[in-house]
Structure formats: structure tokens, C-alpha cells
Design a protein that fits this description.
With 460 residues, the protein is α/β, with parallel strands linked by helices. The protein is built from 13 helices and 22 strands.
């Protein structure tokens, strides 16, 4: 016999109970609620959250992958839904989601989990406290994320569901953005470079051969263009630099040209760019008014944005998201060096004096959505925290959040020898960027300070 335990978390959500319940019923809810430090992969989902629905998830216990099958057993619209583990690592798991209206624009949300570990009493002895602490971390993240998402989706500017076309859907930003959009009620079409599945709202394109059929994207309200070769991995060989340039300029030019041919044309084209536009500028504070730098990546960003000119000429509102160092343990820079810091061998790069203009992944997607809805926002927009830090400050803060020492360092000469031009421009370059246009347009950052952002992203 296994000993049963109970976990409960309750939170006030400042949104109508109907809206909060509907959010949970839409595609992307599972992905959106999955903590980035412990992500899930949805293999199959049938029936949403209604009674009889089923979800198959791929998860990990440390480095060990396993499959979790959940069946939905109870459903009362706007009041509750319940799912239970059919297959998984626990002896018992019943998750009840309850919703209680408090007033017109607020509700109480409760997650209650009745569970039992296997191999009682040994399972409870060795893992009981760890499971409770893990649940506390996960559901603190889930409730916080939901509360902020509801605020964004209830914006006065969000007047109707949109048809949104996204490129780069499988990247770090795209994989976080799409669940955010779909849980908000928008329909998302994904541009893919393989055989598409139309039933999954996929559209084929080939930017290198300039193939994108206008009829395939007719009816698009907004295009969010995120696709591009990753710049922060490995040395910039001649072939790598060609890929970086081609993937950005050809892809952007094709999307801008095709959007300009549509009738009616999209309301907006939101293009990813990067703060690499400004180059190495030491400690100088930079805004959207500043000129491009002289580095390779500065030239790429300049030409990247210039490639959207066909859409600009046709009167489409074009926004260039100059994204800083996007932080998430699910991918990108933080994911690459996090294991070293967790092992206690992390430290500064070079002198540590170079500025890092960082931004949490939730504020990347929040800024992108703000750009979608705010019709007065156009041109370059810096997507960075209002509080850039030096590499030394970043290292010390990450060490504090993880409770790990940060005495190690990587000499500047080692970076240059190992990574060449990429190391100089990405790892050692100092770019202190401020989000002037975002702040002036009314955007409110979810996580404006580094310690708070890392604590949220890492569940600490």
C-alpha cells in the first residue's frame, strides 16, 4: 500500500473566470505551463480538457526520459476539470483544477494534486520532501505565468483573434511564442521547410530558392518573422558566415515581397533583428536612435532590416525587434553555460567588464505581442531589459540564484583562440542597450531585474 499525499496551491487571477478557464482549454496550454527548466513535449493530445480527453507527454526525471499518459475524468465548464495519471512514474496522481469567481474581473484558481509515490515507505523516505519542493517550484511558476499572460491577453488593444503567420517556429523564441499566442485565442500558421501538414496549419516555404506562394498565406493579419541561422555557436567560417547572411536577408526579403503582393495586405510585419546592430560600443548607452556598428554582425543586422523594404514601401507597418541576450534554460546562451554554473565551475568571460544587454524569454514574447497590438509602434525596437549588467555582475547574480561559487574565469585569449571572430563579437563585445521605445510605448516588463528573471526562469 502506498501513502497518499496532497499538494494545493491557490492564487487570485485578475481576469474573469470564463477567460481563465477558456485559456486552459486552448492548444498550447500544456506547453505554456511547462517550466523552462523542466520542459515537457506534447506527443499527443485529444479532446482538450473535456471528460474523456487524453494527453501523452514526454518528460524527464533528471537525465532519464519517460512517458506520461493522462486521462481527463471530470469536467464542469468554468468550475473544474480533472486529470489522472494512466501511465507514469507515480503510484497515483489525480490533478484537480478548480476555478471560483470572485468578482466580475477576478477569480480564484486552485491546483490540488492527490498523489502517492511508489515503494512506500522507501519512496517517501528518499523522495517525499523533494517531490513537494518540486511541486511548489512548478506551480509557483505556472500561476505566475498564467497571471501575466491573462493581463497581456486582456489588453484593451486585443480586440479580436488574429491569423498570425510565424517563421522560425521551432526556435527558442518561436517555441515559447506560439503557445502564448494560441492560448490567447489566436490562430497560428507555421512556415516550414519540409513537407507541411495543412491540418496543423503548416505552410511550406523555401527562402533560399525564394519559394513562398502568396495564396498559401492569404488572410494573414500579422507576420512574425523569427527564422535565421544561429550566430552564437562555433567559429564563423566562411561557410557559416554565408549561412548567417543568406538565412536572414533572403528569408526577410521573400516574406516582405510576398506580404507586399497580398490583397488585403497584413496589418504588420514583426521581424526579429538583434542588438548586434550596434556592435561593440563599450559602456555607451544605446537607444534606437544610434547608428550601426562596424562589426560583421552589425552589417548583417543592417542588411537584415533593409531587406524588409518591399513591405515598408507598400505601407505595411514593420517592426524590427532588436533582441538582446534572450534568457531561458530551454535554449540559447543560458542553456549552454548553465551546466557549468550548476557544477560550480562557472565564471566571468575575459575581464568581465563587457556589458550584457539581457532579456527574459517572457519579455521577448511579451514585447513581440506588444508590437503586434500597438499600431503606433514601428521601426527598430530594442527588446532588452531596462537594466543591463556587466558580465561580472551577471555571473555573480547567477551564482547567487543557484547558490554556487563563481570563482572560475575564461581568459580573453582563450576565447579568441577557440572561437575567433564569433568570440570577439558575441562573447567579448560590450553593448549597453536601453529599451527606450518599448518603455515610451507603455510596455511593462515582467522581469526587469536580473535576479528576479533568473529566479523565475530557474524556479529558485
Amino acid at each position: 500500500m502506498n501513502k497518499e499525499d496532497i499538494f494545493v496551491r491557490r492564487s487570485r487571477i485578475d481576469a474573469p473566470v470564463e477567460a481563465v478557464f477558456k485559456w486552459h482549454s486552448r492548444p498550447g496550454a500544456l506547453e505554456r505551463l511547462s517550466p523552462p527548466w523542466d520542459p515537457i513535449q506534447v506527443i499527443e493530445r485529444k479532446g482538450g480538457i473535456a471528460q474523456g480527453a487524453r494527453a501523452v507527454l514526454k518528460m524527464k526525471a533528471g537525465p532519464v526520459p519517460f512517458q506520461w499518459v493522462a486521462a481527463h475524468t471530470d469536467y464542469e465548464e468554468n468550475r473544474l476539470f480533472r486529470d489522472m495519471q494512466v501511465k507514469g512514474p507515480l503510484a497515483r496522481w489525480i490533478h484537480t483544477h478548480r476555478f471560483e469567481p470572485l468578482e466580475k474581473n477576478a477569480c480564484m484558481m486552485e491546483d490540488r494534486i492527490d498523489y502517492a509515490l511508489r515503494f512506500y515507505p522507501f519512496g517517501n523516505f528518499f523522495a517525499g520532501n523533494a517531490v513537494q519542493k518540486k511541486l511548489e517550484r512548478i506551480f509557483a511558476y505556472r500561476h505566475n505565468t498564467l497571471a501575466h499572460d491573462m493581463t497581456a491577453h486582456l489588453s484593451p488593444n486585443n480586440r479580436q483573434p488574429l491569423n498570425i503567420l510565424v517563421s522560425g517556429a521551432g526556435g527558442v523564441v518561436g517555441s515559447a511564442l506560439i503557445p502564448f499566442l494560441t492560448t490567447g485565442g489566436h490562430r497560428v500558421f507555421r512556415l516550414v521547410r519540409r513537407g507541411p501538414f495543412p491540418e496543423k496549419d503548416e505552410v511550406f516555404w523555401d527562402p533560399l530558392s525564394a519559394y513562398l506562394e502568396p495564396k498559401d498565406i492569404a488572410g494573414t493579419d500579422v507576420i512574425i518573422h523569427l527564422a535565421g541561422e544561429h550566430i552564437g555557436e562555433g567559429r564563423w567560417t566562411k561557410k557559416k558566415k554565408e549561412k548567417i547572411i543568406e538565412s536572414r536577408i533572403k528569408g526577410t526579403a521573400l516574406i516582405a515581397k510576398t506580404a507586399a503582393e497580398l490583397d488585403p495586405r497584413p496589418r504588420a510585419l514583426i521581424c526579429a533583428s538583434a542588438i548586434g546592430y550596434y556592435g561593440n560600443r563599450n559602456a555607451w548607452s544605446l537607444t534606437e536612435k544610434d547608428s550601426p556598428g562596424n562589426d560583421f554582425i552589425s552589417t548583417v543586422c543592417y542588411e537584415w532590416e533593409k531587406a524588409a523594404e518591399p513591405a515598408v514601401r507598400k505601407g505595411i507597418r514593420v517592426v524590427f525587434l532588436r533582441i538582446g541576450i534572450a534568457l531561458t534554460p530551454a535554449g540559447g546562451a543560458l542553456a549552454r553555460f548553465l551546466p557549468f554554473f550548476q557544477a560550480g565551475i562557472g565564471g566571468k568571460i575575459g575581464s568581465g567588464s563587457q556589458f550584457m544587454s539581457w532579456v527574459g524569454i517572457d519579455d521577448v514574447i511579451g514585447a513581440a505581442y506588444h508590437a503586434v497590438l500597438n499600431e503606433r509602434l514601428e521601426g527598430p525596437v530594442n527588446v532588452v531589459s531596462p537594466n543591463p549588467v556587466s558580465n561580472q555582475q551577471f555571473v555573480e547574480t547567477l551564482g547567487k540564484v543557484l547558490a554556487r561559487p563563481t570563482a572560475f574565469s575564461v581568459p580573453e585569449t582563450a576565447v579568441k583562440l577557440a572561437f575567433g571572430e564569433m568570440g570577439r563579437e558575441v562573447l567579448l563585445s560590450s553593448t549597453r542597450v536601453l529599451p527606450e521605445k518599448l518603455l515610451k510605448s507603455g510596455y511593462r516588463f515582467r522581469n526587469p531585474d536580473l535576479e528576479g528573471a533568473l529566479s523565475h526562469l530557474l524556479g529558485r
